């Protein structure tokens, strides 16, 4: 499917229909198409670099969608940057991506970025140019084929975030699969819970826009205030629920979260972290009319590549849910350390081959070469995920390195350690996940300090948290800070992470 | 349920003893508790004190400091 063509058709067929709704604001298909045309025309005039990336900063506003479409209609990929991302990190993204424009859909102080040659379109300017009567943009400029459609930045182990490039072809492969292999019908209402800088959001954004659906956004303000969240949900009439399992877990804390609240909810789509069996069972009880799907995939292979419907039988017969079957145009291999396929039932590393696999990390040929390549004539990504196949189903076993998912957010422990070590108070540091019922509950930082003048440990912790909040999004900051005289070492001189993880020193 | 029990529970959930000493600090602003930590807190409140607080009644204006949380719980005990 040509994504833009499909949205264009909906803008004609359903021009008055609401495409996106967020708190008290909404935008129709007609407005979305017309205003993104105006932005595209402006970008075509102002841009001096074909295909240069455009950073879109904001949180779940109609202008964010307009900016995404305006970028790709003028031949530029967009980089979604949520308001939860601190300025220091945005600076790194600007540097690494060489983005030509930054579109600020929210008020932001842009002086921070003055050391870069980036052209900034501020909130007020954007508003003005969207009501301008510019000429229509032409489809000949649209992003297409192997050109980048979006670039999503994800945590990198060296301390710098890395940009995963997703082409129009990659995205088409994903959206085609969603619309064919899942019970998604035309004109349904989709939950949009994940911020756009997190690729889980792509699972509702394009399937909805391509099928004439309406996106119902849950903002971070709503999540922080569950009363408002549930008032919103009760008015939403959501039919397709896309979220992390953690977000559904949060909603289950409210007794009224059941079929009566969302009578037309028919489909749950979960991705981004392990779906616990208990969560699936609770949802089956509360939402008897809905079907539940567990999906798996890294950002590097465009959101997700495997799925399994979690029926009562599957939930009752498993303690750990399988990730299911691979989508038809894609191959999933399980290999040993030498890259040779292992026998069924044996554990190995997962390798993904197929048309939704990214071309690699933007501006990082070394990192790209490490994980991407051509196998069986297909683009292949070596995931770093461990898994196995049994009875025709794939199972996920966790990471082979120091990447973790906390409530669906992907991060490299080494990047957090690197950021903590920037502080003058810190001599050395290790960050370890703490698990609860299969999932990471929170992170603990084990720190050996330099001399400091704080009387109490909590004062030091507060100072460190403050420093970190300038470098990392809040979800990457450890919940617990533990101070040690020295980090425990193994016999061969490495930090003994296992000993830290057992918590005997804490 | 004594006030101190509430502070102890908070310190466990937040993983930081500061909440036992700075009773008027905003634990959300300080980054000690987020939406997911809130779930843990409400589950523990129900298990330990037998008080069930629906998440829709938990708003950050009334439940943001150790003192206010202790008061809210005392009102419901």
From TrEMBL, chain A:
<keyword id="KW-0067">ATP-binding</keyword>
<dbReference type="GO" id="GO:0005737">
    <property type="term" value="C:cytoplasm"/>
</dbReference>
<dbReference type="InterPro" id="IPR000873">
    <property type="entry name" value="AMP-dep_synth/lig_dom"/>
</dbReference>
<feature type="domain" description="AMP-binding enzyme C-terminal">
    <location>
        <begin position="415"/>
        <end position="494"/>
    </location>
</feature>
<dbReference type="Pfam" id="PF00501">
    <property type="entry name" value="AMP-binding"/>
</dbReference>
<feature type="binding site">
    <location>
        <position position="494"/>
    </location>
    <ligand>
        <name>D-alanine</name>
    </ligand>
</feature>
<feature type="domain" description="AMP-dependent synthetase/ligase">
    <location>
        <begin position="13"/>
        <end position="362"/>
    </location>
</feature>
<dbReference type="InterPro" id="IPR010072">
    <property type="entry name" value="DltA"/>
</dbReference>
<comment type="similarity">
    <text>Belongs to the ATP-dependent AMP-binding enzyme family. DltA subfamily.</text>
</comment>
<dbReference type="GO" id="GO:0005524">
    <property type="term" value="F:ATP binding"/>
</dbReference>
<dbReference type="GO" id="GO:0047473">
    <property type="term" value="F:D-alanine [D-alanyl carrier protein] ligase activity"/>
</dbReference>
<feature type="binding site">
    <location>
        <position position="385"/>
    </location>
    <ligand>
        <name>ATP</name>
    </ligand>
</feature>
<feature type="binding site">
    <location>
        <begin position="154"/>
        <end position="155"/>
    </location>
    <ligand>
        <name>ATP</name>
    </ligand>
</feature>
<feature type="binding site">
    <location>
        <position position="303"/>
    </location>
    <ligand>
        <name>D-alanine</name>
    </ligand>
</feature>
<keyword id="KW-0436">Ligase</keyword>
<comment type="function">
    <text>Catalyzes the first step in the D-alanylation of lipoteichoic acid (LTA), the activation of D-alanine and its transfer onto the D-alanyl carrier protein (Dcp) DltC. In an ATP-dependent two-step reaction, forms a high energy D-alanyl-AMP intermediate, followed by transfer of the D-alanyl residue as a thiol ester to the phosphopantheinyl prosthetic group of the Dcp. D-alanylation of LTA plays an important role in modulating the properties of the cell wall in Gram-positive bacteria, influencing the net charge of the cell wall.</text>
</comment>
<dbReference type="InterPro" id="IPR044507">
    <property type="entry name" value="DltA-like"/>
</dbReference>
<dbReference type="InterPro" id="IPR042099">
    <property type="entry name" value="ANL_N_sf"/>
</dbReference>
<dbReference type="Pfam" id="PF13193">
    <property type="entry name" value="AMP-binding_C"/>
</dbReference>
<keyword id="KW-0963">Cytoplasm</keyword>
<keyword id="KW-0547">Nucleotide-binding</keyword>
<feature type="binding site">
    <location>
        <position position="199"/>
    </location>
    <ligand>
        <name>D-alanine</name>
    </ligand>
</feature>
UniProtKB/TrEMBL annotation, chain B:
<protein>
    <recommendedName>
        <fullName>D-alanyl carrier protein</fullName>
    </recommendedName>
</protein>
<keyword id="KW-0436">Ligase</keyword>
<comment type="similarity">
    <text>Belongs to the DltC family.</text>
</comment>
<dbReference type="GO" id="GO:0005737">
    <property type="term" value="C:cytoplasm"/>
</dbReference>
<dbReference type="InterPro" id="IPR036736">
    <property type="entry name" value="ACP-like_sf"/>
</dbReference>
<feature type="domain" description="Carrier">
    <location>
        <begin position="1"/>
        <end position="77"/>
    </location>
</feature>
<dbReference type="GO" id="GO:0071555">
    <property type="term" value="P:cell wall organization"/>
</dbReference>
<comment type="pathway">
    <text>Cell wall biogenesis; lipoteichoic acid biosynthesis.</text>
</comment>
<keyword id="KW-0596">Phosphopantetheine</keyword>
<dbReference type="Pfam" id="PF00550">
    <property type="entry name" value="PP-binding"/>
</dbReference>
<keyword id="KW-0961">Cell wall biogenesis/degradation</keyword>
<dbReference type="InterPro" id="IPR009081">
    <property type="entry name" value="PP-bd_ACP"/>
</dbReference>
<keyword id="KW-0963">Cytoplasm</keyword>
<dbReference type="GO" id="GO:0036370">
    <property type="term" value="F:D-alanyl carrier activity"/>
</dbReference>
<dbReference type="GO" id="GO:0016874">
    <property type="term" value="F:ligase activity"/>
</dbReference>
<keyword id="KW-0597">Phosphoprotein</keyword>
<dbReference type="InterPro" id="IPR003230">
    <property type="entry name" value="DltC"/>
</dbReference>
<comment type="function">
    <text>Carrier protein involved in the D-alanylation of lipoteichoic acid (LTA). The loading of thioester-linked D-alanine onto DltC is catalyzed by D-alanine--D-alanyl carrier protein ligase DltA. The DltC-carried D-alanyl group is further transferred to cell membrane phosphatidylglycerol (PG) by forming an ester bond, probably catalyzed by DltD. D-alanylation of LTA plays an important role in modulating the properties of the cell wall in Gram-positive bacteria, influencing the net charge of the cell wall.</text>
</comment>
<dbReference type="GO" id="GO:0070395">
    <property type="term" value="P:lipoteichoic acid biosynthetic process"/>
</dbReference>
<feature type="modified residue" description="O-(pantetheine 4'-phosphoryl)serine">
    <location>
        <position position="35"/>
    </location>
</feature>
């Amino acid at each position: 499917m040509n994504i833009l063509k499909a949205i264009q058709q909906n803008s004609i067929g359903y021009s008055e229909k609401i495409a996106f709704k967020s708190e008290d604001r909404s935008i129709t298909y007609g407005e979305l198409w017309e205003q993104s045309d105006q932005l595209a025309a402006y970008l075509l005039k102002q841009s001096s670099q074909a295909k240069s990336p455009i950073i879109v900063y904001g949180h779940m506003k109609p202008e964010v969608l307009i900016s995404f479409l305006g970028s790709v209609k003028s031949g530029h990929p967009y980089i979604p940057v949520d308001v939860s991302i601190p300025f220091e990190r945005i600076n790194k993204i600007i540097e690494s991506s060489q983005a030509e424009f930054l579109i600020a859909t929210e008020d932001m102080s842009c002086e921070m970025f003055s050391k870069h040659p980036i052209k900034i379109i501020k909130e007020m300017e954007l508003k003005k140019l969207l009501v301008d009567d510019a000429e229509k943009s032409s489809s000949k400029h649209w992003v297409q084929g192997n050109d980048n459609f979006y670039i999503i930045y994800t945590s990198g182990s060296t301390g710098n975030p890395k940009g995963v490039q997703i082409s129009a072809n990659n995205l088409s492969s994903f959206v085609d699969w969603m619309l064919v292999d899942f019970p998604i019908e035309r004109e349904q209402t989709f939950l949009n819970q994940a911020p756009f800088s997190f690729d889980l959001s792509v699972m509702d954004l394009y399937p909805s826009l391509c099928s004439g659906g309406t996106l119902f956004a849950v903002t971070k303000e709503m999540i922080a205030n569950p009363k408002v969240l549930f008032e919103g949900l009760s008015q939403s009439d959501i039919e397709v629920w896309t979220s992390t399992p953690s977000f559904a877990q949060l909603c289950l804390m409210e007794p009224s979260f059941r079929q009566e609240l969302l009578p037309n909810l028919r489909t749950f789509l979960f991705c981004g972290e392990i779906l616990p069996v208990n969560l699936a069972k609770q949802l089956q009880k509360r939402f008897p009319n809905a079907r539940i799907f567990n999906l798996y995939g890294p950002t590097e292979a465009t959101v997700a590549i495997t799925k399994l419907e979690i029926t009562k039988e599957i939930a009752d017969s498993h303690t750990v849910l399988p990730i299911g079957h691979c989508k038809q145009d894609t191959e999933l291999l399980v290999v040993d350390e030498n890259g040779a396929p292992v026998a069924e039932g044996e554990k190995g590393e997962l390798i993904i081959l197929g048309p939704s696999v990214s071309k690699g990390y933007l501006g990082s040929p070394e990192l790209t070469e490490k994980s991407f390549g051509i196998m069986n004539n297909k683009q292949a990504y070596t995931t770093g995920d461990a898994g196995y196949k049994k009875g025709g189903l794939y199972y996920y076993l966790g990471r082979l390195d120091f990447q973790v998912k906390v409530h669906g957010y992907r991060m490299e422990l080494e990047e957090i350690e690197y950021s903590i070590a920037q502080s003058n108070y810190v001599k050395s540091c290790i960050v370890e996940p703490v698990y609860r019922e299969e999932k990471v509950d929170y992170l603990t930082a084990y720190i050996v300090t330099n001399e400091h003048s704080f009387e109490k440990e909590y004062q030091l912790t507060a100072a460190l948290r403050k420093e970190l909040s300038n470098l990392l999004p809040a979800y990457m900051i450890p919940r617990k800070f533990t101070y040690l005289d020295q980090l425990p070492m193994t016999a061969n001189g490495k930090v003994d992470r296992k000993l830290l993880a057992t918590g005997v020193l804490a | 349920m004594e006030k101190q029990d509430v502070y102890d529970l908070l310190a466990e959930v937040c993983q930081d003893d500061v909440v036992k000493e700075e009773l008027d600090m905003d634990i959300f602003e300080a980054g000690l508790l987020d939406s997911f930590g809130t779930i843990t807190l409400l589950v523990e409140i129900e298990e330990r004190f037998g008080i069930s607080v629906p998440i829709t009644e938990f708003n950050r204006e009334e439940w943001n400091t150790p003192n206010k949380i202790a008061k809210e719980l005392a009102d419901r005990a």
